[in-house]
Amino acid sequence: MFSSLRSRLLLTYIIVIGVALCVVAAVTLVYLARNPSQILQARLRLQNAAEAIDQRTESLRGAALPGLWNAAERLDEAYDVRVLIYSLDGELMVDSRQETEPALLLQSTQRESRRTSVVTSVDDEEGNEWLHLARSLPSDHWLVLATPRPRMTFLAALRSRADDIIKPLQQGGLVALLLSLILAILMARWVAGPLQRIAQSAKGVAGGEYQPIKPEGPNEVKSLARAFNEMAERVHTTQQSQRDFIANVSHELKTPLTSIQGFSQAIMDGTAQSKDELSNAAGVIFNEAGRMHRLVLDLLDLARLDAGTFEFERTPVDIPALLESVLAKLTPQAAGAKVVLTLHIDSLPGVIGDGDRLAQVFTNLVENAIKHTPEEGDVRVVALPGDGLVEISVTDTGEGIPPDELTRIFERFYQVDKSRSGGTRSGRGAGLGLAIANEIILAHGGSLRAQSRPGQGSVFVVKLPLARPDDTTLAERRT
Questions:
Q1: Which class is 315-465 in CATH?
Q2: DSSP label at 269?
Q3: What average pLDDT score do residues 251-259 get?
Q4: Which of 117, 195, 276, 474 has its CA at 20 to 30 Å from residue 346's CA atom?
């Protein structure tokens, strides 16, 4: 019955409201049981008696002990208060109820409180509580007026005030309960409503539909809604990337397989008979098989990088020597494309990493720069020390990358064919090189960023952290 959040919130509010009303009712009844009105009447009686005595104090001047007894009894009878008279040394001389009531346990400070209207409490020998008020007399005596503190049992208080107190309390409690229930229902809806919408949207995401949620309700629920929107967007992006990935892999494998199948069929059915035709068919099959082999290796590398199982060497890397080796290997390709290839290296500190994989990264970046740089263009590789890192930039003077495509160049299989038509110079790749390069640099704890202006060229910047004394392992793939 109370399985939903809304019903549980409503039940919680009802319990809290009920407990609060019961506590208020109990405190009110306890207060009434203490009989505050009769206590007030007793205080007023003491004060009125004290004021009347103040007006007759001259009649007590020089009175003997029998006269003081008579005066005390008359005051007791007239005002229904206990009258006690003490000497200056604290001796009790007169007590109008000495024979009927236990003696009061008055301290000297309580007896000798001069003219004051403050009524205080005192106990007698049997533990009963009395209200009393003290006065000084012209006859150098102390006068104390006392009356028992009114008391009433709890049940007696309920019976005596059932008509004028209990019924209004019941009516007021019922009204308060109804209003509180209405407020509780609204509060439960305010809290649970956004959560239900989040749950419905989550079902939609599971079914492939993404609908953002407007953050509503308490701050915690708003934070949950924003986190859900961010998560759902990432899930949607990931699902789209997976669909694109499968489509791209299928396309990249379909083309060479079609060529291999076609030329193999030509050999088998005798269409290719001459030596040149056979050689051409075998060459196409060999090249396309190599292309598929490289694609499969790249896909395996990406899978291991994603899973964090890619094995890296952990050795000191001489960045200047590595870059010189890469450029020496690509110099013939640059010369064939009539592109000027230059290297500028400052004095660099050491880097710990996998030299072969870093060489793979820089080979890919420089080779791409050569492919997409027109004749008589320049490709510059610059390596400089930075704040706790080494920065290597690869700059070309090609056509550049449009801003709307710059953010996607590290996606798998993404190719900027339209804007960088020069890429056809050396054959069409699968679009995995930059994705793998980015993963390798991230695994080394560095970063790979691209900057470009259409018509002015592009810059790829690699930042690698310097070797530290406590370096022992390569960072695993980022979380």
A1: alpha beta
A2: T
A3: 81
A4: 474
